[in-house]
C-alpha cells in the first residue's frame, strides 16, 4: 500500500483539459498532464484493498465494471507512488498491450468501481496509466523486442483495430509468424478511422504500429479479405486465421425524407474528416463539411458526441444532439445504479463542454424522437420534425417509448448526421466461410474460447461481441491469441524455422 491514509489526506485530481473555446480551433488532443508530484500524490490515494474491484472487468447491468484487461492497478499505483516508473511500466505491459490507447480513450470503468468511490472520489487511474506509458516512450524504455525463436507456424489476422493488433502482438511474441490484413489504407481500425484526432492523436497509433512491425509483424494494407482474396483461400493458406474485422455496419434510420441530400451516417462523416486531415490537413476538401450549417446529430451516444466535436471544428453555425434517453441524474441513483456499476450520472463530455463554451448551452436534447425530414426544392434537407417521448412498459412487459402529444417541434438543419448505433459486422466474410452468427448477427464463437465452427478460424473483438470498447477489444485479442496458440500447439506439429 502506498500510504494507508492517502485517500483521506488528498483529494482526487484528474488531468486538466485545454480551454474548450480555444481547442475547437484545432484538431490536437485536448488533455493536459499532471506533474510527477501530482501523479505520485494521486497514486498514494490507492488503498490496495483486499478485493480490488477496479482490476476485475465484468459486465454488470449492461455496463462494464472494473478493468477488462485486469490491469494490476494497486500494484502500479504503489510503484508510481515510490517513483519506480520503469517497474510500473513492466506491470502495466504485463496485462495491457496498448496502455497509450486506453490511457487516452477508455471510459475508465475501473474508476467507477474503485473502493474509495464508495465513500468519496475514486482514485485517479486512467491518467496515471497514460503517464506510465508515455514516460516509458520518453525515457526510451519501450523498444522493439522481437521473439527469440520462431515456431514456423503462420497466422493471418483480418482487421487491424485494437483486437487485431493485440492478437497479432501476443501471437508474434509467442514466435508465430503473423500477417495482419487491413482493407483500409492505414493500420488501426477505429483507433485510426473512427475515434477523432483530438481524443487520440494518430501519431500515437503509428508509433505503436512501427514497433510491432519492427518486432516482425507483417502489415498488408488496402487488401479486403473476401473481395481481393477469397476468405477460404486465406484459411487454406494459413495455419490459423483470426477474424477481427469489427462491427461497424450502421443501423439504418429510415423515416420520411431520410433519402434527402445532406443526411449522412456518422462513420462516413467522421472518417472523411480524419482521412482528409491526415492526407492534406483538410485541404483536399474530400470530406463533408459542417461549416456555416445548422447541424443536428441524431444519436445521444459517444459516436454522436464525436460528431458534435467534429462539426464544431468545421465551424458549424449551430449544433444540436438528439437522444432518446432522459437526462441522467446529477448523482448516482444508489438504488437503481449501485456501486460498483458504471455510474450513470449527468456529465458534460468534451464535445458538450466545447459547444457550451461557444453557444452557452449543453447541445443535447433529451427524450426526443425525429418523426420526419423535410427538404427544399432541390432535394436538400432543410428541417427536422420531432416529438418528445417518454419511456413506458407496454402490455407485453417490454420497455418502449411513447410520443407525448403537444410536444411537436421543428428544427432547421442543412446537415444531419445519423449516429443511432451499429448493426453488427458486415456479411461478406461470414457468408464466404459459412460461419454461424448470434442473435445480433455477430460471429458466433464461444465466450472465452473464440473458436468458430471451422477449427482453425477464430473471431474476436467487436466482430464477436458487437460494438464495444477499445479495452474489451484488447482483452478479446489477447484471449483469442492464447486459444490460437494452444490450437497450434495441440493440432499442428512444430517446425522451427
Ligand atoms: C466513432 C467511434 C468512437 C469510439 N470511441 C471510443 C472511445 O473513445 N473509447 C473506447 O473505448 N471505444 C470507442 N469506440 C469503440 C472502439 O473503437 C471499438 O470497440 C474498437 O475499436 C473495436 O476494435 P476491433 O479491433 O474489434 O474492431 P475495429 O476497430 O472496428 O477494426 C476492424 C478493422 O477491420 C477492418 N476490416 C473489416 N473487414 C475487413 C476485411 N474484409 N478485410 C480486411 N480488413 C477488414 C476494418 O477496416 C477495420 O480497420 C468508438 C467507436 C466509434 C465508432
Ligand atoms: S484500461 Fe480502462 S479500465 Fe483498465 S485501468 Fe485503464 S482506464 Fe481503467
TrEMBL record:
The FAD/NAD(P)-binding domain, residue ranges: 154-477
A Pfam family assignment: Pyr_redox_2
Gene Ontology MF, one: oxidoreductase activity, acting on the CH-NH2 group of donors, NAD or NADP as acceptor
GO process annotations (BP): glutamate biosynthetic process
Pathway recorded for this protein: Amino-acid biosynthesis
Superkingdom of origin: Bacteria
Entry keywords, A to Z: Amino-acid biosynthesis, Glutamate biosynthesis, Oxidoreductase
Gene3D superfamilies: Alpha-helical ferredoxin, FAD/NAD(P)-binding domain
All copies of domain Dihydroprymidine dehydrogenase, residue ranges: 26-137
Listed name of the protein: Glutamate synthase, NADH/NADPH small subunit
Source organism of this protein record: Paenibacillus dendritiformis C454
